[in-house]
Amino acid sequence: MRSLFGNRPAALTLFSGLSLLTGVASAEEPIAAAEDSAAPTVVTQSTTTVTTTTSSPSSVAPSLPPPPTVAVPVAPAPVAAPPVSVAPPVPMVPYPAAPPPGMGMVPGPVYYNGPVWIIPAPPAGSQPMYAPPMYAPPVYAPPVYAPPVYAPPAPRVFVQPYAPQPRVLAPRPLRTARPLPPPRGPSVAIGLRGSMLGISSQQVFGEDVNLWGAGLTVRFRSQGRFGFELGLDALRAEIGKGAFTRTSYPFTVSPMFYLFQNRPDNHFNIYAVAGFGLMADDIGLYQGSPNQLSQQFWELIGHVGGGVELRFKRLALFGDVRAVGMVLDDSSPAGLYYQGVEGGPIAASSSGYKVNLGALLWF
Length: 363
Description:
This protein is mainly beta. It folds into two domains: about 1-90, no CATH class; about 190-360, Porin, CATH 2.40.160. It is about 10% helix and about 40% strand. The chain contains three helices and twelve strands, in the order H-H-E-E-E-E-E-E-E-E-E-E-E-H-E. The chain has helices at about 1-5, 10-25, 335, and strands spanning about 40-45, 50-55, 110-115, 115-120, 190-205, 205-220, 225-240, 245-260, 270-285, 295-310, 315-330, 350-360. The strands form three sheets. Strands 5-6-7-8-9-10-11-12 form an eight-stranded antiparallel barrel. A hairpin with a 4-residue loop joins strand 7 and strand 8 (about 245-260). The two termini are about 140 Å apart.
């Protein structure tokens, strides 16, 4: 149809034939009465679908076949719009039993119009519909299992790994365990002592000056042979029934050296001692008389000597003798008074000895 309308001369020729056929048909009389005549048939044809609407009459009279179409050539004339073709009534043909071969499933009515199959065009934008393919059902065959075949395992091959040469290690000298230190003896002691200080280089009223008294001592010991001593004494001498009295307070610091080490089983020991200190002197002259006089002096003191110690578990007894030297401090008020004077209550320098006997308690 598209090719027919697209060819303008052929369309004009068809239009002229249809016009002539219409005039001839209108000149003939109708065979049946107006009320018995067949209802008009309206044919609407488009480029995509041809629809025929027919009103079913009460009684249908046989109609004549359409006259033959005579093609009259008509000169082509310019036409502004495409012509509209009106086809004569076409008898309806029942649907064929099957669509034409190769057409598949086509939407819309399909009918036979003479020698031409009228097939509506598929709607714009839609895909043609095809009959679903038919597949033969699958055929299942029972599986066939081959009997298992067991093969013996491959022989295992053991490869001896490479063994490095053994390292020859020199024997290390055996280290003997360090012997445990011997048990340590006591290290701190505190005790009392009795002392006598004799000044051999001085006489008062023709008598030797000997001071007697007591004191406090503290000693420290190391694990070896060294020790240390702090001593403080109070000594007094009286000559001439109060005509001359002297009270001295020597304080000394003395390093010590023991002959044997400090061990619990060493009960007897011999030591050497040497040290220095400071001594304060109180002098009283003519006590109890109108000429009574009191003076205070300071002396530097040094000593050196030795002694023995007998120690039990905690208690120890000791005795020592020390040589003593003393020098007067003449910077004090009393020392300035006797500066350069011989025969004063305290000599500018003096010497003597000191004897100590006492007891210690070791910890």
